[in-house]
Amino acid sequence: METGTSIGLSIIAISCLLAGCLFGIVAAAVRPEDRLAKSVAFSWGFAFGPIGLGVVLFLKARASRSMTAPTDPF
Amino acid sequence: MGAMIQAKTAQGRSGSVTLIAIGTAISVISLFVPWFSGRTTSSEVVVSPILERALSGPTVVVAGAMVGGFVLYVIRGNVGLLGCAAALLFNTTLLIWLFGASLAAWIPSGILPTNPVVSLEVGVSSALMGSLLTLVGICVILVEQTWGRRSASLSSWQFLVGVAVACGALYGRGIPIVRAEASGFEWSFAADAVPILGDLLGFIGLAVALLALAAGVLRWRLGAVLLMIASAAYLLLAGVVVISGSLLERAGRTLADQFGVSGVEVSSLLAASGLAAAAAVGGLVLAVACMCGTRPLSVATVPGPGPDPSLHDGGSTPTFDVAPGDPGEPTLPF
To answer: Are A24 and A43 in contact (CB under 8 A)?
Structure first.
């Protein structure tokens, strides 16, 4: 019984680590390439999960907004 | 100028290494320390996660991930694995720490004796503190690498006060506030055993700890304002604990009745309230200092147009040379 509980909880812990890794991969994939290094984006997603992914998406949104902002011709 | 910025950032990174090393060490050591205990009139069981058979598996996984993540960070500069393991430990201990009164429901059956009174031990607070320090260090590193913001020196008094306030807020919750004594029997319980008041104290104490570390390390101005509010609330709540001593004594008698022990002398203690008040005052001082002090923001992260090769060097801190005011300047969200 106790061994089963230990194995089950271990699987949950490993799943959480893998889920964090998945967030890192997604964050590295959606990063703004000219603003953020790949390893930094991966670390944001891996370490902080959805919060880190949100930070990367925030940076991407800021970067794309600055790219599409109309420039003053004068 | 660029070399000076790089030197400052490298100095901050070495400070972050110290912070992360201390946090990782506290986290790993806390896994060997008792996390909670179950007491009955006849027996007492103390549970350490790594020594308990049902919990040893996940504990080894988390400890291995933290040590491996720290080695990976030192060798490769990648904080992802360490941050994920620290976040996992933080979330787990946070649930246990916040809802300690109902802890018996979280513990696998068979570990504790029948019908115990469960109380938190110092291991939970240590794991929470260690994982929090690790996460703050990782956050500092990632903020530096993303925005180039230079964090405060770890030897500054603001940082030390921030750590002290966080320790007081986290460890203070485990200090007994009511003691029950009878013939041949003595039992004391902390705030986590008191419904509503203990939970409220836990939430506000956690907010004070988080904001104190954020204000001490990042010198975050909005965080300082929030820290001031949280510290004031924490101070008020410490006063409520002192004033409502009779209520707590009554709660202690109720709990003592669960043992079936009569003639119990119940007395309220002031140590926990005193520590909470000290932490709250420290938080207020830190908040005022952070609000009045200059903001040590290194506005060095202004990327020029187009990809920067220094951004893709595998974890090194990017440096930028374009003047502020560029439309592409990444501004800090806080």
So the answer is: yes
